[in-house]
Write a structure and sequence with these properties.
With 193 residues, this protein is an alpha+beta fold. The chain has 4 helices and 8 strands, in the order αβββββαβαβαβ.
Length: 193
């Protein structure tokens, strides 16, 4: 009888300790951005100062917000201004291809010449893959473009990212030609109202 009580207490203790500790959550890797004071060729390495944390929010090394986010609704959206600079990605990739670097440089140049403007980067995917995976891949694509702009001395705090995953295809087709057009990052120039 005493052995049953001891076994019961041990099982309850084990269950309680598992309930208290729970499952360990793995935090996603963060995208490191250069320090806002860094300029191209300054010798500073990316990652000094700022990181992009969960949901693309800028964080400092301690994990707190480094500056306030801006609200896209407070700006007029100019989709036509940078439509020609849309960046396309390879299948299942968020790497900005060398052939697309000229588009990123053109966007950086436009932002440098219009200091009042901000930028929205939209990440898109083709229809293959789960909705959740495509939403995540779209976010990685948008963040990769933001990081590329940061290496060209564009202040990352002027850039907001969003992922639409597979929700807004450029081409509604269901073949490789359509998918190639849908794997993209679009730039929307934002001007204060």
């Amino acid at each position: 009888m005493k052995l049953n009580q001891i076994n019961t207490l041990l099982v309850l203790g084990l269950a309680l300790s598992l309930a208290v500790t729970g499952c360990r959550t793995k935090h996603p890797d963060v995208t490191k951005l250069p320090d806002r004071g860094a300029t191209a060729g300054s010798g500073k390495t990316p990652g000094e100062g700022e990181k992009i944390g969960d949901a693309g929010k800028p964080t400092d090394a301690s994990g707190g917000l480094s500056t306030a986010e801006f609200n896209v609704d407070d700006f007029n959206q100019d989709r036509a201004a940078l439509a020609a600079q849309t960046v396309h990605f390879d299948f299942d990739s968020s790497v900005v291809k060398a052939s697309e670097k000229a588009n990123v440089e053109a966007v950086a140049s436009a932002l440098k010449s219009d200091t009042a403007a901000k930028l929205l980067i939209e990440g898109h995917c083709d229809e293959r893959g789960t909705e959740e995976y495509n939403r995540s891949l779209g976010e990685r694509r948008a963040l990769a473009l933001r990081e590329s702009l940061a290496t060209l001395s564009v202040d990352p705090m002027r850039v907001k990212t969003i992922s639409y995953g597979e929700d807004k295809p450029a081409d509604p087709g269901h073949d490789e030609s359509a998918w190639r057009k849908n794997r993209r990052g679009e730039f929307v120039l934002l001007h204060p109202k």
